[in-house]
Specification:
This protein is of the alpha/beta class and 384 residues long. It folds into two domains: 85 residues, FAD/NAD(P)-binding domain (3-Layer(bba) Sandwich); 208 residues, FAD/NAD(P)-binding domain, CATH 3.50.50. It is 32% helix and 19% strand. It is globular. The chain starts with a strand and ends in a 22-residue tail after the last helix.
Length: 384
């Protein structure tokens, strides 16, 4: 059963179903934190983070109270995995390079970035050596590491954390970003209820070696939403499992024998810290600093689709890295991340369009009434 953007429901028959719904942000039972601490799982999340980061600098410029200015120049990130580390490094790099000479009332370099995590080290999944190197690079960049800290409260003025000894500490921060934890989306529960599939503690669907649900060879679950041999939730797993499932269905349609069990080939992991600094782990190869950064660049360019995208990325990065230019600096003060779907259906008949309630509350305009078609222009001779 599917639903159109305008609300109507319809059925789609299938012979083979491949479910690749991914994961969503997890707040570990505190979904109320999402109002003040957006994650980074969707395009709307990314736009919201951009708005909050750039907006914080703008608000700090107009603040007369030094305490208020310090609060807006404090950025707290909960979660020291690859997302948290990369985002913390980007904010510090933004403050020390891109925006360093664009404000009068304060120095952007004074922006405080606090990275919080319940673990003992950042990027723990990269191993002790790379984790230690990443921590050193983050400290040189000016990021404050507060490991062993569990977020207990998030509001519009900051975040409160509790350490291993039970001591509470509060960080006054105008911007709190959530980069810790994922959980399965609602479709995983619906699929499990319909098929009787087992789920792990994260809500992921447990699959067999051929990525199908037990008792349902026609249904495959791939990517982050599948649970198989504790495979990591990274893009490479999704890509390889998608390729495997596609070939498996193709073989079945041709009447050929079933494919071999899915085998994941670990190509390694990489995390960007700042310009000229990254960490890469690929089997016995452990790279950091500039060599790791070069490998990180190559990996991201290699996996882009299309020659034009690759060339465009190279040109954009050259400008960004050599001249501290960032074209993606426009933002809006509207809460883009909180708007409902553009085609939110009305409460009445399916298919009837109505402006989302969030739009109405924010004072946005409804779509204009359709205009009559213009009259057909009079024929003209060429050159007249």
């Amino acid at each position: 059963m599917c639903r159109r953007l305008l609300g109507e429901r319809f059925e789609v028959p299938y012979d083979h179903l491949i479910v690749a719904a991914g994961m969503r942000q997890s707040y570990f039972g505190h979904d109320e934190f999402a109002v003040w601490a957006p994650g980074m799982k969707t395009i709307s999340d990314a736009l919201t983070i951009r708005r909050r980061v750039f907006g914080a600098f703008e608000i700090a410029e107009t603040a007369d109270d030094p305490a208020e200015q310090r609060r807006w120049l404090t950025f707290a990130l909960v979660g020291a995995g690859p997302t948290g580390v990369e985002l913390a490094g980007q904010i510090r790099e933004l403050a020390t390079k891109t925006l360093r000479s664009e404000y009068r009332k304060f120095q952007p370099e004074d922006a405080r970035v606090v990275l919080l995590d319940s673990g003992s080290d950042p990027l723990a999944q990269f191993g002790d050596e790379l984790s230690r190197r990443a921590a050193s690079e983050l400290r040189k960049l000016g990021v404050e590491l507060r490991m062993g800290s569990i977020a207990t409260q998030v509001d519009g003025n900051g975040v409160a954390v509790r350490d291993k000894d039970g001591h509470e500490t509060r960080y006054e921060a105008g911007t709190v970003l959530w980069t810790a934890g994922v959980e399965a989306p609602p479709i995983a529960e619906a699929l499990a209820n319909a098929t009787g599939a087992e789920r792990d503690r994260h809500g992921q669907i447990c699959v067999q070696d051929d990525l199908t649900i037990k008792g349902h060879p026609e249904i495959s679950v791939i990517g982050d939403m599948m649970s198989l041999r504790k495979l990591p939730g990274v893009a490479e797993v999704a890509m390889q499992s998608g390729l495997y499932s596609g070939h498996r269905v193709k073989r079945r349609l041709k009447g050929q024998a079933s494919a071999k069990p899915f085998k994941y080939h670990d190509l390694g992991s990489a995390a960007y810290i700042s310009r000229g600094h990254a960490v890469v782990s690929a089997g016995p190869i452990k790279l950091s600093s500039f060599p790791g950064w070069l490998v990180w660049l190559f990996i991201h360019i290699a996996f882009l689709s299309g020659y034009r995208n690759r060339v465009g990325a190279i040109l954009t990065w050259c400008l960004a890295f050599t001249r501290d230019l960032r074209r993606e600096r426009f933002f809006t003060t509207r809460a883009t991340g909180r708007l409902r779907d553009l085609y939110q259906p009305a409460s009445g008949a399916p298919g009837e369009f109505r402006a989302p309630a969030a739009d109405a509350a924010a004072g946005t305009h409804r779509p204009p009434a359709p205009r009559p078609a213009p009259a057909k222009p009079t024929a003209r001779r060429p050159g007249t």
